[in-house]
Write a structure and sequence with these properties.
alpha+beta; 4 helices
Length: 147
């Protein structure tokens, strides 16, 4: 659902690395935006603002570089699913334009499982403790180099 929303599949590297660690988690990562392009475009946007040039696509800022980790694991007779975004601090972007896409995909997932009476609870996370979860900032930074 995230890929249908405009994110690009991150491939198998992260999933394979987590599996090789013997983790109980199954993961997938998707991405939006390009760090180098976003930084360059944010500078262009700054200088073009108010000149009329901002109406031309060449001067548009790219999407906020975002990495989203979807991680799932068995918990007793149930499953836990965590979908968490990591916005790049290196992208030169100040907007959270990935949020509407992410919110739409998560709402679709939630509605699907709720309609099948499979959703026990849902909560919005403001952060994830660096407890070894593949969706936590520390693990994403260490294993993917994402900042």
């Amino acid at each position: 659902m995230l890929v249908r929303s405009g994110f690009v599949d991150g491939g198998d590297a992260y999933a394979n690395a987590i599996r090789q660690l013997g983790s109980e988690w199954v993961v997938r990562d998707v991405r939006l935006g390009d760090i180098k392009q976003s930084r360059k475009r944010s500078v262009l946007e700054f200088f073009a603002e108010g000149t009329g040039l901002e109406f031309f696509p060449r001067f548009w800022r790219g999407a906020t570089p975002t990495l989203v980790v979807a991680a799932a694991r068995s918990v007793g007779d149930a499953s836990e699913l965590v979908v968490y975004p990591h916005y790049s601090t290196r992208g030169g972007s100040y907007a959270n334009d990935a949020a509407p896409l992410l919110r739409g995909a998560v709402t679709e997932i939630t509605d699907l499982y709720r309609s099948r009476n499979r959703l026990v609870s849902s909560e919005k996370l403001l952060s994830i403790k660096n407890d070894g979860s593949p969706a936590s900032q520390a693990v994403v930074r260490e294993m993917l180099g994402w900042r």
